[in-house]
Known about the structure:
Layout: E1 10-13, E2 16-17, E3 21-25, E4 30-35, E5 48-54, E6 57-63, H1 66-77, E7 82-88, E8 94-108, E9 116-123, E10 128-130, E11 139-144, E12 163-167, E13 174-180, E14 185-188, E15 191-192, E16 202-203, E17 209-218, E18 225-233
Parallel strand pairs: 12-18
Antiparallel strand pairs: 1-2, 1-7, 3-6, 4-5, 6-9, 7-8, 8-9, 8-10, 11-13, 13-16, 14-15, 14-17, 17-18
Amino acid sequence: xxxxxxxxxxxxxxxxxxxxxxxxxxxGIDIEDLDVTDHNxxxxxxxxxKGLKDAGEVSIDGNFNITNAQKMMELINAxxxxxxxxxxxxxxxxxxxxxxxxxxxxxxxxxxxxxEFSGSLKISGKPELSHDVSGGLTALEGIEETMEEALxxxxxxxxxxxxxxxxxxxxxxxxxxxxxxxxxxxxxxxxTVSSGNQSGEIALGDQGSLTNVKVKAKEEGKIAKIYxxxxxxxxx
Length: 236
């Protein structure tokens, strides 16, 4: 096969997809060239050696909407770096795993076209390429504040099902999850949890609200599997 259609490429920032993108470019990786030419350089040819490597930036363009605008502003104002992945729709998927931060965001509203935005992410450290998918969770259980019974996930948990819903009692203000995946790095809403151990309290929204919880399971050098649980807290 000569090439792969790029449609469906995803940009993930801290396990959450930035949506409505029309172009993802980069990172543009450069290596410094250090001039080591001296009077003894053979036949007066300049000589160079490799210097430091710079992963550069990832540039993005997209269709403006309130969701991606809020996300970009949140990232601009956040402290610290973010986990970034560009996931290409190859078979199997290929992921470029990065670390960095949003360093530019620019909406654009021409009088004769749609509202768009552009932005960039400065990359820190070494990019890692992976194309094998992690095994993922083998079990997922949970409890809520006011009930001793386990949370009822819909549909029932399966390794290759990535979206679930559950409903808690109106008076419950938190849930705890117990994810299992041997030899995986597991995070629940960004907090590390050991396989088979219970997470800390995951705060829920007010009565009548939905809370999204993300569980990431990743084997070293492989693409993470991300599971999303939407928790409904009804009104009393």
